[in-house]
Amino acid sequence: MNRQPAMEARGLTKHFGNVVALDGADFELRAGEILAVIGDNGAGKSTLIKALAGAVNPDAGEIRLNGNVVNFRSPMDARAAGIETVFQNLALSPALSIADNLFLGRELRVAGPRGSVFRLLDRARMATEARGHLSSLGLMTIQDIHQSVETLSGGQRQGIAVARACAFGGKVIILDEPTAALGVKESRKVLDMILGVREKGLSIVLISHNMPHVFEIADRIHIHRLGKRAAVVAPADITMSDAVAIMTGATTAAAVERSKQSTGRTLS
After folding, report:
1. Does residue 130 lie within any of the structural domains?
2. CATH assignment of the domain containing 182
């Protein structure tokens, strides 16, 4: 799969006191792919993702979006550049409706002075567009767009968060453990939804500890260890055991590569 990078980072470094969270980390996300990011606890993958999302400012290194250097000082900067992040807490307001949550912080106003002066919301348009966004991702089980989010299942809430990211993320969507705490059936729906997002041409970063999910839907896997990228592999060219071994330091990508040479397969 030969695609130009949609987003890349080179030499990212971040210190928290004496703790080195990122140690010259590199990253590459190709256009229209699902890139899984895996790593053991404390490997620095969360800091890497936060740096890409604008939530953490790296001490050194650079981030490029479509080849252009960007300097995100806040998540709002990243959002303005077309990068949407769905963190594990989903950042949803349970008491608000589905439509209100989808447009939270980006509410649509009615035309004319009622909207510009009196700040009246165009709720009819928000409801219509919200249903369109949900339908495009296959979330047809939600009947009432005006029901509060607190009445939804975990999978449906995840769907709302992903739908919001798709609605406003023009380039990159970052998903942090999207199937965590979900049952088998709801996880399946979320995975299908992620595959549907890729079909729309968006680039997706998937952070997950669920190796079967990673190997099922990822185009490539970024393995993070000790604050830097240890390897980038294709799921078809490596086993889950090999990936875990690289992730924990039991072996190296070079050692796995040598073991694969007899089959004619190579790491990405």
Report:
1. no
2. 3.40.50.300
